[in-house]
Amino acid sequence: MRRIVGVDVARGLAVLGMMTAHVGPDDHVPFPPGGFAQLADGRPASLFVVLAGVSLALLSGGRDVATGTRLVQARVRVLVRALLLLGLGELLVLLGTPVAVILPTYGLMFTFGCIALRWSRPALLLGAATFALLGPPLVQALAALLLRGPLNQVVDLAVGHYYPALVWTAYLLVGMAVGRSDLRSPHLRAAGALAGISLVVLGHGGSWVARAVLGWPERLATSAPHSSTTFEVVGNTGVALLVLAGALAAGDRWPRALAPLAAVGSLALTAYTVHVLAIAVLGDVVVRQPTVAGWLAFLGTTVALCWLWASTVGRGPFEWLLHRVSTAAADVGARDEQKEEPTRVG
Q1: Do 186 and 169 touch, CB atoms closer than 8 A?
Q2: Is 4 helix (H, G, I), strand (E, B) or coil?
Q3: How far is CA 255 from CA 4, 112, 258, 260, in A?
Q4: Distance CA 307, CA 22 (A)
């Protein structure tokens, strides 16, 4: 599968944005509200999930949805990756860093994405709207009931505070709908940018109207990071579409200049995992008491090492593992599928 520079650039921005949310310095400026550091809270993670949906769509054929044996192989690859991401994520959680690790929920969402591989673009967008509208109140209701019980570790993936899959699957389905389109089309990029601007205004402007004018309660009407309300999902989706549209256009025009950033995107899983390991080694202080120097060191080291690795080795170590294991499992699944097919005599 040929890589698309713009998608890797957008994914690189998402990874660096999540690092900024974890180790970036706090600021206290009047605009934007909460400071510039607040821009990295929640939005890069949602972009990361939107791009995961794009990857699932590309893995299963892009505009030409896979069928037959190819569809079986795609589903096996997605399911195996889901299990590996879930396992890796839980190992990172065990490190005890003050970082909300997204990978376990990522794995759970991949499982649902496997079911949606054959959906059309309208069906994917309808599914995304359903999760965005019904997910937030459902999560709030279920969280109050289920997180008190003995299954809280499992239930947390679906209704937990930071990345509730019942809400965040909306981002995945939007990404899959985008991945079912022609990513090289200028018309798609213009439409994506226009849709992005509209959704940002609708999400954050709608939140203000709901709270200040209509008097809705904060828990339903806020668009604050990780609130997982409909307004936040709409606004974050708009930001993701804007970033992706810009990255696709820039990636076509300046591929060499953006190669270091694209390298981070092509090694996204490795970069994310290593940065959590680095926080575990350096200690909670890099998160609890962040500095500009520490933040720039994380970003600079990540970009430099990813660019060097991508230029000399190619696929990252964790990406290689996911590719190797999932491809081997898909080949076995395809052979089993072919054995079960009845012999046809012409």
Answers
A1: no
A2: coil
A3: 10, 33, 5, 10
A4: 22
pLDDT of residue 140: 86
CB atoms within 10 A of CB 306: 25
Is there a cis peptide before residue 317, judged by omega within 30 degrees of 0? Answer: no
Length of the chain: 346
Q: How many CA atoms lie within 13 A of 75 on its CB side?
A: 17
Return the H-helix or E-strand segment holding 323.
helix 317-340
CA distances (Å), origin 223, targets 37, 199, 207, 208, 320: 16, 12, 6, 9, 37
Spatial CB neighbours of 43, under 8 Å, sequence gap ≥ 6? 17, 225, 236, 239, 240
The one-letter code for the residue type at 54 is: V
**Three-state secondary-structure class, residue 248:** helix
The predicted pLDDT at position 110 comes to: 92
Name 29's Cβ contacts closer than 8 Å, sequence gap at least 6: 35, 36
Q: How far apart are CA 233 and CA 172, in angstroms?
A: 11
pLDDT along the chain (346 residues), means of 10: 87 95 76 63 93 94 86 92 94 94 92 92 96 93 68 72 92 96 92 95 94 91 91 96 96 95 96 97 93 93 97 94 91 56 40
- Cα 329 from Cα 19, distance rounded (Å): 32
Q: What pLDDT score does 345 carry? A: 37
Residue 33 has a pLDDT of 55
147 and 139 in contact (C-beta within 8 Å)? no
pLDDT at position 53 is: 95
| pLDDT confidence of residue 254 | 95
Rounded Cα–Cα distance for residues 256 and 273 (Å)? 26
Q: From the CB of residue 93, how many other CB atoms can be counted at a distance below 10 Å?
A: 16
How far is CA 138 from each of CA 45, 77, 89, 161, 228, rounded to the nearest angstrom?
A: 21, 30, 25, 13, 11
Nearest alpha-carbon partner for 24 in 330, 333, 290: 290
d(CA 20, CA 295): 7
Rounded CA-CA distance 242/248 in Å is: 10
pTM over 0.85: yes
d(CA 15, CA 238): 18
Question: Which pLDDT belongs to residue 85?
Answer: 94
